[in-house]
Amino acid sequence: MNKKLLCAALLCGLGVAQAASAQTFDDRWYVAGSTGVNFQDTDRDTEDSIFGTLGFGKFLNPNWSVEMELNYQNPDKSENPNLFWSQYGVSADARYHFRNADSKWWPYLRGGLGWQRHEEEFIADPTLPPPADGYPRQHEDNNFAVNLGAGLQFDFGRVDLRTEVGTRIDFDDEQARPANAQEDYFTDLLASVGLTVALGPEPAPPAPPAPAAPSCADQDDDGDGVNNCDDKCPGSQAGQTIGPDGCPVPVTIDLKGVNFDFDKSVLRPDAVQILGEAVEILKRYPELKVEVAGHTDSVGTDEYNQKLSERRAQAVYDYLTSNGIDAGRLVGPVGYGESRPIAPNTNEDGSDNPEGRARNRRTELNVQN
């Protein structure tokens, strides 16, 4: 009968394994209770009996748990069931669980140390009448014990189911029997089914890792195409021509061919077509703002050339505004005189360079944004 109970306990646990729900590592304290059959060592001269336990434990990590446990059993004596015999004790046990944190069920091994107390009634010589007081004699003893076992645990969340088989080596070396019949220890087999119930609120899920701070190499706050690490001029405006350092690059709209006759500020017919193309560029990019700049060659005084460059810039300025370009987009007109040549006014031997001077008699549209 007792062997059938053991098998039923283990099969019961296996039958519900697939119904158990997965749960991550739960480090709450728990209470545990179990009941089962204590198959007594035959040398005890006691019958197998039901036993119960009550424990208090905690998982230290997904694989290790520790538990304090109380146990009690009250078997009948084989030779006289009317004589009282009981055993109870306490133990400290560790279990190693073979599982990952999200396992639904897992096997484990148990090991621990404990203390057991025995209380039993006996009659010194059963062939003699009972003692004069009418009561049998009593033997009590305390002793050390070792627990070893293996089991399966099924995770339902707050409540877990355990099925376990194990042995308790009970170092009881003094019994109520003749000296020549004393035993050094007893080995009991125990099979049980139990529950653990976690205490306290459900553990909070682990906080998600904080997102990595974005790198400046991945950011472009002003949208100029240069990342923040390399951008030495944050805050670029839309439409600006930007260099690799993120700073605006001065750009000149090519007015090559808009040159002037010597000492003149009147637009030549061949310059009108070129300025017409510049007007189309400015209309195509309405966000552009340009400086209208005039230049001269080096013939004449600085003061004269300054005035002449201003008149040349004014001629281009007037053409642009008269052809639909808003004056608010134009800076100037500005004259730079002979201070910014783009070609030599004289040759290396000091002689006049007419071609170079012709190139320096020019106007430019310098982009400002």
From TrEMBL:
It is found in: Cell outer membrane. Residues 354-369 have a biased composition (Basic and acidic residues). Residues 247-369 form the OmpA-like domain. It is a multi-pass membrane protein. Residues 202-212 have a biased composition (Pro residues). CDD domains: OmpA_C-like. The keyword Glycosyltransferase does not apply. Keywords: Cell outer membrane, Ion transport, Membrane, Porin, Signal, Transmembrane, Transmembrane beta strand, Transport. Residues 201-223, 330-369 are annotated as: Disordered. The keyword Nucleus does not apply. Residues 1-22 form the signal peptide. PANTHER family: LIPOPROTEIN YIAD-RELATED, STATOR ELEMENT OF FLAGELLAR MOTOR COMPLEX. This is OmpA family protein.
